[in-house]
Amino acid sequence: MNNWLKNLTLNQRLSFPIMSFNLLVLIGFQFISYQSYLAIERDNLISRTQVLARGVGSNLSAPILFHDSFTAKEILSALKADSLIVKARLELPDHSRFATFENKLLTYVDPSDMQQQKIRQNGYHFGKDNLYLIVPVTIDGEEIAHIHLAISLDKIKAIQTTHLKISLFLFLILIITSMYFINRIQHWVVTPITKLNKGIRRLIKGDEHRPIHHSHLTNDELTELTLGFNNMVKTINQRNKELRNAMQKLAMEKAFADEVIETVQHALIVVDSKGVITLANEACQNMFELSSFQLFNKPLIDILQPTERGAFQLLLDNNLNKHQGIEHLVIESLAYSQEMRVFQLVSRPLRNKQQALFAIEDVTECQRADRQQKLVTKVFDNSQDAILLFDRNARITMVNTTFVRLSGFSEDAILGRHYQCIIDKDKFAPVIPLIKEALATQTQWHGEINLLTNDGQELPLYIRISQINEPHSHDQQTVVIGSDLRSMKKMKLLEYQANHDILTNLPNRGKLYQTLYDKLREQQRSGFSFCVLFLDLDGFKSVNDNFGHNIGDQVLITIANRLTEAVNEQDVVARIAGDEFVVVLSEGQEPSTIQRTCQQIMRSISAPIKVDNYHLNIGASIGSYLVQSNEYQNINDILRRADKAMYKAKLKGKGQLIHYLPSQHLEQETGAGGK
């Protein structure tokens, strides 16, 4: 029976007692009328209370979501508009009490266990003194709380008493007016409640929120409830609109923030209070070779793998526990590539979530470039060469310490000045076109230039000039590197003096030995033969004895010049003693060529020599030795054999040429004129 009644519509429930009264007027008009009226009042009480509670419940959504119990309590106090409500209690799904309202003027009786079971089953229960009712609070069809209501039944009891008293009087009136009341109830109650019910169902289902349109509005509670429902729908629509706009704006901001985060080249990682990764952006994959999913729930220290793990763990724990940030911490890490990498970390605490955001940048290349830059700077400052940098206007922009030391200019005094302040314009003018042409075609030039020091002295430098073009700024700079030639020239002079005869400037015995050593090494490689001539001047001792050593020195100088002119450029003429000379002819010459060269030497030497007012005649005896590649011999053997041939020439009457032939153990003799 109860289930059947529950399935009836409100219109059926209201019409059924009246129709039953007409059918059963003879068997129990008073009882039926009484029960019908009582049921109507109870239903009205339940419906009215539910509507009111739902209206209040719709305003409780925000306080519940934001855990604002104070606002919720104030909203619940709106239930005092219904004087029959004894007590209201707002409970969350976990049955915790969120807010309460109580009317101290009315009596509240706690429901028994059985009554509580019926309340949970039916959503309401009529007790002896109170009606117990549960009204859910929903958002988009999802229950977020329940309002437990207790409504006083004093009015029902009073109605019951009054109904019994006037039932006899109304008996006749009810018969006449029953149909009218049914129609009016349909119009005034059922229709508004039906519309209200449909509207509430639409709200519950999340369908379109439309207000209820009623053509005949009165000033009763249903009208107020309808108007309240319409206002509630309007408010909900407005809030939904604002919520949609806010959600749309939030979604756009979130999308923008996500795009910014993913665009950032730094690895962004969020860790919890234990240092475990809870969020990572896409840049982490490029840096750690792990996706965001793979990084999730892994300790940050295991991802970074710092070389000083203990110190980093201590620093990380300290900053996470104290909610402090890390400023530009540089750590060395092996990471996943097993290569030493350098990371720079910056962190900020996220206090609301007890988490921290880490921005990690791979500064390995920057560190390497910085070290390289420092190394370049150190090389620049410690270079033994003077280094200058010019801009496109030929003004000095940078110098190293070597230039400051060599030139005597201070760095502040020279920077910004034109290059002409350190050169002799007149001497440098002919070189400028050559330098410009070389820089235009080859971007570099090298040569010897004398720079002017701070005290006006000339500083010989071997200059290397190069142009550098900046690809980004299209700026052009010129680098000048200068090597101090003063020590080099001095060393060359000492080396020259050590290897040359001071009087004649011919190679001396030491230089001759080096030449013969090189010839022998070349002979081992190529197999060519070469010839050594040993010369001794005839009649030179009498010149020294008769005319003095000064005249003798002039004669030696003249002989040295004549020997140099008589041979080829690749031949070597050396003075090894007072009047003894050695000529090393280039390899590969035929015997006939050697013969002609010797004759040319003897003719050149025997020509009269004029010194001051003296006309002197000097001759020469020559010993020739052809060095073959198939005979083992050293330098001393070579000179000894050539000297032996020369000695034989002396014995033969001077002015002779004798060839030493070791393979035949004989000497070939030739006069001054040759054969």
TrEMBL record:
GO terms for biological process: signal transduction. It comes from the Bacteria. Residues 233-260 form a coiled coil. The keyword Membrane applies. Residues 253-323, 372-442 form the PAS domain. GO terms for cellular component: membrane. One of its GO terms (molecular function) is catalytic activity. Signal peptide: none annotated. It holds the Pfam family GGDEF. Residues 528-662 form the GGDEF domain. Its cofactor is Mg(2+). SUPFAM superfamilies: Nucleotide cyclase, PYP-like sensor domain (PAS domain). The lineage of its organism: Bacteria, Pseudomonadati, Pseudomonadota, Gammaproteobacteria, Vibrionales. This is Sensor domain-containing diguanylate cyclase. The keyword Metal-binding does not apply. Keywords: Coiled coil, Membrane, Transmembrane, Transmembrane helix. Residues 187-241 form the HAMP domain. It comes from Photobacterium lutimaris. Gene3D superfamilies: 3.30.70.270, 6.10.340.10, PAS domain. The chain crosses the membrane at residues 20-40, 164-182.
